[in-house]
Structure formats: structure tokens, C-alpha cells
Amino acid sequence: MDKNNEKKRGHAIALFSGGLDSTLAVLLVLRQNIEVTALTFMTHFGCDLGDCSSCGSNPYPVAEKYGFNVKLMHLGQKFVDIVKNPKHGRGKNMNPCTDCRILMLNEGKELMEMLNADFIFTGEVLGQRPMSQVKDRLNLTERETGLSGKLVRPLSAKLLKPTDPELSGLLDRDQLEDISGRSRKRQIELAEEFGLQDYPAPASGCLLTDENYSKRLRDLLAHTEHIGFDDLNLLRVGRHFRLDKNTKVIVGRNEPDNLQIMVYRRPHHFVLEAVEIGSPTTLLIGDTSEDNIKKAAMITARYSADKKKPSVKVTLTSDDTNPTYDVPPADDKDIALVRV
Length: 340
Ligand code: SF4
What we know:
It is a single chain. This protein has 340 residues and is of the alpha/beta class. It has 2 domains: 11-194, Rossmann fold (3-Layer(aba) Sandwich); 237-338, no CATH class. It has 12 helices and 11 strands. Strands 6-7-9-8-10-11 form a 6-stranded antiparallel beta sheet, with helices on both faces. It is elongated, with a radius of gyration of 24 Å. Residues 48-55 have low confidence and may be disordered. The structure holds iron/sulfur cluster. Residues 47, 49, 52, 95-97, 100-101, 132, 204, 206, 208-209 line the site of iron/sulfur cluster.
């Protein structure tokens, strides 16, 4: 397999998550002595997928083992824009998979042109995912990105129309695969063939496919005109409560959450904590009226170590004040009504 010293027959760009499917796609192309530059995406939604088969795996060890380059790219605001307003709709939750694929492929296409590479490829498997990978969708993404003929799916290639590199003989179609559907049997066989170990289990780590995260995101989009990256980062931590259209409360579930909350806190967010007992860190964001401060204090008390006591002391920290409130812990039924 190690053909590092041989002259490469061509150069290809991979959309690469580090998951099993995109790794196998890279190995199938490398096997044909083609140089691979792998592009790994990051977003504010916990996913850096090239093929949706996993999320967040470190791409470097496998790249080093098999001899290909990895480039990391953060999709930043471009990705936020398609999440807010996807042209091709969403999946079951907030996941705008088709637009996401188009965006990633466009970025890959730009890199392909910049590096004068021959083609681009992904770890997509025909029929593996309900929305983004059925044949129509594959064709649509090709049309929208102008990549017709240049986009190869090595794992399902034999089930699809031959692409330019196959027609020109750069890629030997016979050495590509004809995998379809959700079974991972053939992928596991291939992993063994290539000596690939420790690949991540299939799971969509994309937060946009998570029902609870999607609820929070919908709530944020419905109530916030200008969404900052800190707002998005805060969606991943703690319990969230909507007090009114301008105001929300975020309560840490554990120590790591409490620390994260303080990292993403902005100066105008008020912080609440129960005094001298085990306490969550709470943020009050929005309308910081006395009434909302008391509600946030009661929610904080409910998740403190003294949640069963009739009253709990909770301090509030803002830029210029530091009062303490003596409040009863909020009732679970009331909390359920405002939980996002
Ligand atoms: S699940 Fe959909 S939105 Fe999330 S990374 Fe994959 S294709 Fe993109």
C-alpha cells in the first residue's frame, strides 16, 4: 500500500471526516497511486463531516499512517447562513443536509481548482442516508456545484455513471466498490483488508440531527435577530429555559457545563449561583428585570444542593452589582412549562 516513493498518477481532493466511510474512500483512491489531499470541515454545530459517518474524529493519525495530507477548514458564518435559511429544506430536525453537501463540495471544488487536482471524492454510500444520499440528491448536488463528471463516490462508484477520471483511465473502475444501503458489512471487510483499526462507530455527531439541540436552535432563531457564535456555543451546554420572548436562562448540569458557561458568557449576561452550597452556574440573558432575576434565582435554587429546602440564598453577579436573593426553589411543574 505504501507507494509514497512512486510517482503519483494524479491528485484528488477528498471530503474527509475521519469516519470509516470517508477513510475507506481515501484508501481506495490511494491504492490506485493517486495523491490525496483530504479536506476536513468544522462548524459551530459539532460536526466536521465529510461523509456523515462520524463526527469529530481526529483525522491526523490515519493520514500519517497511510500517507495523505489533511487540511482543516472552518465553515463559520457560511454554514450558519445555510442553517438559518436552507434552500433545499431540512431533514427530520434542523439538519440542512443537501445545502450542507453543496457548501462542502463547493469548498472542495475551490481547493481542487487551486491545487490543479484531477477530481474530488467523498465517502458517500448510495442509499445509506435518507435525505442527502439518494440518487436524486446526488445528482442535484452535482448539478448545483457544477462538478458533474468530476465527483467520485468510490464506495458506490460501480452503481453510478462512470465519471471523468474513470473514463480517462486515471481511476480503474474495477477497483472501486458497489456498496449501497445501510449495512456496514462490506466496509468492515475493506477495513480489515486495509489494516484499518480503531475507526469510529457509525453515528451522526452532527448536532443538527439531534432533536433536543434542534429545539433549542429553533427557539434561538425565533427569538434572536443577530445570532453570535457565543449564542450557538451556549446551545450545547446546560439546561435551557425561555422566560419570555427576549429572555432565556441557561443552567449548568455539571462542573464542565459551569466552566463552559463562563467561557461563553458575555459582559451583559447576568450570572447567578447559590451561596456556599453545591450550585449550578446560571446565565440570565435578555430582559434582566427584577421579576426575571427572581425566576432565574428560583431555577438556580431548584438545581442546587439545597433544592429540597424552603428557601435558598442565590447571588447575582453583573457588571456593577452583586445582590443576594432569598428564594424558594422553583417547582418542577413550573419549570417544565419554560424548558426549551
Ligand atoms: S448531518 Fe447533514 S447537516 Fe450535519 S454535517 Fe451531515 S450533511 Fe451536514
